[in-house]
What we know:
By secondary structure, the protein is an alpha+beta fold. It is built from 13 helices and 13 strands. It has two domains: 193 residues, Beta Barrel (Thrombin, subunit H), CATH 2.40.10; 175 residues, Alpha Horseshoe (Serine Threonine Protein Phosphatase 5, Tetratricopeptide repeat), CATH 1.25.40. The strands form two sheets. The chain has a six-stranded antiparallel beta barrel. It has a six-stranded antiparallel barrel with strand order 7-8-9-12-11-10.
Amino acid sequence: xxxxxxxxxxxxxxxxxxxxxxxxxxxxxxxxxxxxxxxxxxxxxxxxxxxxxxxxxxxxxxxxxxxxxxxxxxxxxxxxxxxxxxxxxxxxxxxxxxxxxxxxxxxxxxxxxxxxxxxxxxxxxxxxxxxxxxxxxxxxxxxxxxxxxxxxxxxxxxxxxxxxxxxxxxxxxxxxxxxxxxxxxxxxxxxxxxxxxxxxxxxxxxxxxxxxxxxxxxxxxxxxxxxxxxxxxxxxxxxxxxxxxxxxxxxxxxxxxxxxxxxxxxxxxxxxxxxxxxxxxxxxxxxxxxxxxxxxxxxxxxxxxxxxxxxxxxxxxxxxxxxxxxxxxxxxxxxxxxxxxxxxxxxxxxxxxxxxxxxxxxxxxxxxxxxxxxxxxxxxxxxxx
Length: 385
């Protein structure tokens, strides 16, 4: 074994506890400091499914636990995340030296990580660089190293060390089938891939909307009318947490408002349904930086315009209903053509409300064109009766 001070290197490697949204433990991963102020590296998949993380360190037998201040950056395709822990006392942490020279096939290497259980924190294994894949392998993008050093679940995010005691990679997984395990086919991400990560700057990357969607789909059945109140309860809680963590002006918040609006509509709470559906469109419009609702609907689709119009119908506001059915008709025609059934449905309702409000002359000209009238003759005739 090379003359490496593993006790010193060991101090820079951490154990990352993972917790779900109910603060229940869901396993652990590994990581290591790359800067003395508390910046560390781990796998993206270690942080991805966790609502909360705890960083466990053991420096010369002195154990401490820290919260995470932010996930600074990351790249899901490369499976890398950079984290900063909450360093209230401005402590200095031991950091690993980053290798500048790429390893060669056949070189010795060592891993430091925590396999299987927390009691095995910072175990060391030895092997060689078995192969190098410049274009990635097994779903990982970027340069990958195949290593013979054995490690398993919990070691993800740990440090791969060369004979100089420098970190050359981040351990990330292996070939889990029986033959692959017997051959010690494991993988690590080359340290050069740590550069140019995508900025995140959030305390968690946990997808709250996806979490609640999966709960609803698994336990409730979204199309069961008896469950719409429960669906609503889940989405309202989802929105509350989303706003607390990330604010309420992004695409996911917009989608949550839409789902709340749809559930409220089914529960016949038309005023609150309308508020949430309009909030969904407002957020989308701001994100798209367009000047009008017509432009916004062209980007996001006419389905939500149809539902907003239905809310106005239920509230007996025919003028606004006419406006939004018109948005829907124009959008669907532009995106899917005149033969689309929802386009036809929207035109029918535009004609009906236009007739009732004596505004047929104000509707878009294409709805009165002979070609469209012939296609839609049967429904149009109903307006005369």
